[in-house]
Write a structure and sequence with these properties.
The chain is mainly alpha-helical and about 100 residues long. The protein is about 75% helix and about 0% strand. Helix 3 runs antiparallel to helix 4.
Length: about 100
Amino acid sequence: MSTIPTLVVTPAGAADAYGKVASGASDPAAAAGSGFGATLQRAIEGLVETGQKADALSAQAITGQGNLTEVVAAVSQAELTLQTTAAIRDRVVQAYQSIMSMPI
């Protein structure tokens, strides 16, 4: 079972990362696997995996081979994951719109 990774950002960590980027000390090739895009990609892959697991368990239940409790748990987890993803997307869009409406 895959879960969406949790990002913990502290003010000190953010300041340190900003300082590395501002000074040019950050290696873009090394940071490519651990950046925001990579984290977002892993989260989306987890979402897809959770949905596929729920679909597979649902198909087994339809044929009479699956455990109903596992099906309900998998479908509930897939629903919660999808709701979380939609909430994050809404916040990202809201942040983008706020930034775009700022005067230069």
